[in-house]
Automatic annotation (TrEMBL):
<dbReference type="InterPro" id="IPR039261">
    <property type="entry name" value="FNR_nucleotide-bd"/>
</dbReference>
<dbReference type="InterPro" id="IPR017938">
    <property type="entry name" value="Riboflavin_synthase-like_b-brl"/>
</dbReference>
<keyword id="KW-0479">Metal-binding</keyword>
<dbReference type="InterPro" id="IPR001709">
    <property type="entry name" value="Flavoprot_Pyr_Nucl_cyt_Rdtase"/>
</dbReference>
<keyword id="KW-0001">2Fe-2S</keyword>
<dbReference type="Pfam" id="PF00970">
    <property type="entry name" value="FAD_binding_6"/>
</dbReference>
<keyword id="KW-0408">Iron</keyword>
<protein>
    <submittedName>
        <fullName>Oxidoreductase</fullName>
    </submittedName>
</protein>
<feature type="domain" description="FAD-binding FR-type">
    <location>
        <begin position="10"/>
        <end position="111"/>
    </location>
</feature>
<dbReference type="GO" id="GO:0016491">
    <property type="term" value="F:oxidoreductase activity"/>
</dbReference>
<dbReference type="InterPro" id="IPR050415">
    <property type="entry name" value="MRET"/>
</dbReference>
<dbReference type="InterPro" id="IPR001433">
    <property type="entry name" value="OxRdtase_FAD/NAD-bd"/>
</dbReference>
<dbReference type="InterPro" id="IPR017927">
    <property type="entry name" value="FAD-bd_FR_type"/>
</dbReference>
<dbReference type="Pfam" id="PF00175">
    <property type="entry name" value="NAD_binding_1"/>
</dbReference>
<dbReference type="InterPro" id="IPR008333">
    <property type="entry name" value="Cbr1-like_FAD-bd_dom"/>
</dbReference>
<keyword id="KW-0411">Iron-sulfur</keyword>
<dbReference type="GO" id="GO:0051537">
    <property type="term" value="F:2 iron, 2 sulfur cluster binding"/>
</dbReference>
Length: 248
């Protein structure tokens, strides 16, 4: 039975697009109807495969944006100008289209409602996507585990899930901090500048509280953040990282 379940997750399946929603001018969320979806954990990802008319295929991995308890499967994709898959998903995909999925994949970068320790989530750019799934699952399960999110975006307009994050910031048990690195709107009360040691010291849990730490974003962001956290005294074994390059 277990082998059958694994093979099922690793087999390609078709999913139908129900809705495409713009999160920012470069980022869209894709709501999918995936029959016989086996379920997933918050933080997992899927592989997406596109097939051209001449048979050429390209595939990329995308984090799942929806919580396991959500009714529909949601992916959020950032458009990369030199990408092979993301421009089609963001610019061309419409309701009623079908895409191929494989997954869910990954068991390391996940958060479970049974996790009771404090959690620190640090996101750069579209690295916020798996954290949306975690935060939604935290709310659905009414988890008592405190979570702090530190999210770095270039501008206010490039903050993905902006309205939802603002709502989450008002909930007990969840602290949301946003830093804008390039420009800030008038009256901005959040942080400014890149995530660095000083900001992490201010926002993160003290190392002696042994928080679970998750860092997701571009490779340089993840490496710099993880190194800074270790420098602050956090246990490297409790820092889970997920990074992406420029080929999505």
């Amino acid at each position: 039975m277990e082998r059958t379940a694994v093979l099922g997750r690793l087999s390609w399946r078709f999913a139908t697009v129900l809705e495409v929603t713009a999160e920012t001018d470069q980022t869209h969320s894709i709501v999918l109807d995936a029959p016989d979806w086996p379920g997933h954990l918050a933080g997992q990802h899927v592989d997406v495969r596109l097939t051209a008319d001449d048979g050429y295929q390209a595939q990329r991995s995308y984090s799942i944006a929806s919580a396991p308890s959500d009714e529909q499967l949601v992916l959020t994709v950032e458009r990369l100008d030199d990408g092979e898959v993301s421009p089609y998903l963001v610019d061309e995909l419409r309701a009623g289209d079908r895409i191929e999925l494989r997954g869910p994949v990954g068991g390391y970068f996940v958060w479970r409602p049974t996790d009771a320790v404090p959690a620190l989530l640090v996101a750069g750019g579209s690295g916020i996507v798996p954290f949306r799934a975690m935060l939604r699952e935290h709310g659905a399960a009414m988890s008592a585990a405190p979570i702090r999110l530190l999210y770095s975006a270039r501008t206010f307009d490039q903050v993905i899930y902006r309205e939802e994050l603002l709502r989450l910031a008002a909930r007990d048990g969840i602290d949301v901090s946003i830093t804008l690195t390039r420009a800030q709107p008038a009256g901005w009360h959040g942080y400014t500048g890149r995530v660095d040691t000083a900001l992490l010291r201010q926002v993160s849990w003290p190392p002696e509280e042994h928080p679970a730490v998750y860092v997701c974003g571009p490779t340089g962001f993840v490496e710099a953040t993880a190194n800074a956290l270790v420098g602050l005294g956090h246990d490297p074994g409790r820092i889970r990282t997920e990074r992406f390059g420029g080929t999505s």
